[in-house]
Amino acid sequence: GVKKEGFGVKEQGKMNCDRVFNIFCLYGNVEKVKFMKSKPGAAMVEMADGYAVDRAITHLNNNFMFGQKLNVCVSKQQAIMPGQSYGL
After folding, report:
1. Residues 6+ apart with CB under 8 A from 54
2. What's the CA gap between 69 and 56, in Å, rounded?
3. Which residues of the chain have pLDDT under 50?
4. Fewest beta carbons within 10 Å, which of 31, 42, 59, 76?
5. Architecture in CATH of 4-74
């Protein structure tokens, strides 16, 4: 199955779907991006394959963006479904 990852950043005002897409597409094909209503500052990124997820985690996790540390990890969910809430 397709792996999906989630990430968190505190300066959410500086992040939007386009920026998240542009950051993660450096490591593989991005299928979907969804910001979490239940967890401000967190988003989920669905990648096309597990290799892309592994590359994104390797290069982005624990790095800093806009002065905030990124936490990038594999999500418990396998796919992003419209209108559904998720937990990281």
Report:
1. none
2. 15
3. 10, 86-88
4. 76
5. 2-Layer Sandwich (3.30)
